[in-house]
Amino acid sequence: MSIDEVPSSFSRKKYSDVAKLTFRERDDFSREFIAEKIIDLLSSNIELTPMSIDGGWGTGKTEFCCKLVNLIKEKGTHHALYINAFQADHANEPLLTILTEVIKLIPEDSKEKRSKFIKKAIPIFRFGLKTTGKAVFSHISKQDAVAVASELDDVINNATNEAIDASVEAILKDYIDVDKNLTALQKALEVLAEEKPIVLFIDELDRCKPDFAVHMLETIKHVFDVEGLQFVLVCNTQQLKASINHCYGDAVDAQRYLDKFLKFTLMLPEQCGKKHEEISVSIQHFNNLVKDSNLCELVCFTAESTAIHSLVCYVIKSQNLSLREVERLVLYISIYQVLTNGNGLDNSVSYAYKLLRITGIILFCFRQDIIRAMLNNCLDAKELGNFFGEEGIKLFEGHPYSPDTHHLVMIALAPECAKNKELFALPNSDYGKTCKEWIDDIFSPRYYRSRYQGGYIHDILETIKVLCLSK
Prior knowledge:
The chain is α/β, with parallel strands linked by helices.
């Protein structure tokens, strides 16, 4: 297997610029419908800005956002601007970050128009710099008396009488002028939005430093509360709430604080497809990644190869893997195939053997603590069972000839665990005996050599050695 056969998400064929993606190129999770509805909301008379598109890390928020921006541009309903807040984090100036994008809407050949807009923006930006970006917001929040008093105290304690007079005059003038300058800037923004409404998408805010993330929220609310100007935050809301608590302490109710800024929150769905045939977007992503690679042929992750496919899908669902984590898993499978020259999981290997190898890859990818326990001969069957969402053998009761694939793995590995192996021991009954005979038949005679050398756990550790580039 060559590197060119690795799924396109990880290889040289990966999209070089996600910002150029459209739903026409790919809509693996049937999200164009959601994008259309968002545009309908943005075009309505409902006041819902700022709104947020919420989702955990690695759930495809950025790709969806970029496709939504491009769809808006195609429809021509709004000026759609995209800001990667994480890339702007280092500058620590949300005001400048937003204004820089807005100014791009003014054609470069309209130098006079650009110049007038910039002149109206400069006083607000200058004031923010002089007050470290805080006083402007406290002023607008009607808390300016406290801020002014604080600044005056600093002046009085550090200057002569003559200097005090001059400084007091300058401070008061700044605070008197800020309302006028802010109004002028907001009016300029309204004029710009009259030609066509503006929607700014702020992405990756949850990845920013807490101070910057909170500063961005306050800037949007207090400076950019302008008719015709809308904001959509694309972020992990839970992480954003953690940033709020980092800035203001755990005593602050982060959700209530956030409710002051966000009018509507949309959760990206975790299912896709028609209602009667819905599938987890993460499982769909796994299927697509495999289909786009040579793994379908070599590993048999197709629906026809139900045993291997069902084990991976079960883990994706039970562990609630994100799209990014699914990509990581497929990448590790691809690496294993490359390191074994495509033979590690090919069709010449019995599916029972592949079950253990796939289990090894999955654990290496997500639970290296369990791998370390295997290496140190101290594996706890209860801990392994927890990973598979099982507490004991009682959950395996059913038709003895069709146990789920993760049940097979547990029944094979549990007897070799150092702790709690009895939780997964087959019952001493006709069912247990039949099940044991059937499982022994699956794992033999091909496994005789492996069991002699160290059992089924040995097979998993052999897989780990490959991934660790060991001989």
